[in-house]
Amino acid sequence: xxxxxxxxxxxxxxxxxxxxxxxxxxxxxxxxxxxxxxxxxxxxxxxxxxxxxxxxxxxxxxxxxxxxxxxxxxxxxxxxxxxxxxxxxxxxxxxxxxxxxxxxxxxxxxxxxxxxxxxxxxxxxxxxxxxxxxxxxxxxxxxxxxxxxxxxxxxxxxxxxxxxxxxxxxxxxxxxxxxxxxxxxxxxxxxxxxxxxxxxxxxxxxxxxxxxxxxxxxxxxxxxxxxxxxxxxxxxxxxxxxxxxxxxxxxxxxxxxxxxxxxxxxxxxxxxxxxxxxxxxxxxxxxxxxxxxxxxxxxxxxxxxxxxxxxxxxxxxxxxxxxxxxxxxxxxxxxxxxxxxxxxxxxxxxxxxxxxxxxxxxxxxxxxxxxxxxxxxxxxxxxxxxxxxxxxxxxxxxxxxxxxxxxxxxxxxxxxxxxxxxxxxxxxxxxxxxxxxxxxxxxxxxxxxxxxxxxxxxxxxxxxxxxxxxxxxxxxxxxxxxx
Length: 483
Ligand code: ME8
Description:
Blueprint: H1 6-9, E1 14-22, H2 29-49, E2 54-61, H3 65-74, H4 78-95, E3 102-105, H5 109-124, E4 128-138, E5 143-145, E6 163-172, H6 178-187, E7 192-193, H7 195-207, E8 213-214, E9 216-217, E10 225-226, E11 229-234, H8 236-241, H9 243-247, H10 255-258, E12 263-267, H11 271-284, E13 292-296, E14 299-301, E15 304-305, H12 316-323, H13 325-335, E16 342-344, H14 346-376, H15 392-396, H16 400-421, H17 423-429, H18 431-452, H19 457-466, E17 467-468, E18 471-472
Parallel strand pairs: 1-2, 1-12, 2-3, 7-13, 12-13, 14-16
Antiparallel strand pairs: 4-5, 4-6, 6-8, 9-11, 10-11, 14-15, 17-18
The structure holds ligand ME8.
């Protein structure tokens, strides 16, 4: 029998999350990417299920060593730094018009309560024990590392030597869940997507095996105290992952509506935490697993890894100030297949903007509006049109790139229909046919505009205001061209 996918088994609600981001820096294009992808889905599901049935959560991961170090560097107290930086993140997401329902911060009281409650449950369940951790810790990753992970003694991602630490810590019995997790992943092909990441996780389990990990820090002051040992704070990943249940209303009657989450969108750098640690933690706490973890790829900037030290992080705000939010969303979701790695190039951004948004879409809207104003007194006939592409299947599978490719090739064909019919000539011989042709195109364009709403909310709204209830108003310039 064919297995039904988890996507079809979803309840009448949609709960989507992004990673919660470290606040040692301001958001760059990579953070915008995960967040815009989640926002696109949230907008799509709000239309489909109603706004009260969608929960979209993003936020900041604040209880980490990175925060302490960044505050020191900024010459601020940790708390002051945390407040200021979290506000910056939230403002930037507001400028990007991210329609989150909750911006969660891990320093909030309800989150502290969740972490302590779950730690106690896991402890009572016998899954936490005391041991000595002696080894390496990479602050960049906020993760324990092994000699074999290093290249020339350095963390290959952060190019820094990890700290050597020896602490008496509390450990979580991850090893206990190895077989259960392996079978779960095998039995639930949609749990980890895309397929390549699923294979990566399975091969990690098979070749490396799951080892217990330390879930507390003895020497760190900043963080959430363990309920059963207040001399230690929770390890930042144990704390951070639990944001997803806090934001779902853990401990309140809302929780049963939202949990389990439908989708965690993450970057490929953090799959081990989301696909190995997280399911085991949830099982130990007696909670259901999310339906899906989708790990997207990483961007480079003109072929180079984006990093603070290289000084090549792309500022999403500078881009939207020039090109607008829709342009950024379009480039990120159209240019790179969601799930694969991709490159960000300003030159390419400008090319794609001019050809697809300014020419293909923008020109079509203004030409069509101008012709209907001229040839039919700003009126069009409302005719029923058949969708040439049903994008539902693609969008629920996060195939954003295909959705936009198909919708824009549909727009191409509408531009083609104008060229073929030459309304400016046709009008001289057959005004009625001219109106029919232009009305048909306007109605198809309106349908496309509705489909585009989750991707290009501003343009979609404008198009629906230009052609509305049989009347046309001047479109102005939707996307000004840039050299
Ligand atoms: O890992 N390309 O936070 P973080 C694409 N706090 N996406 C990128 C990217 C790039 N070059 N760079 C970053 C953490 N990202 C933890 C998460 S969740 C419980 C805790 C995105 O600030 C991508 O989503 O390092 C990646 O997974 C995330 O930012 C890492 O953000």
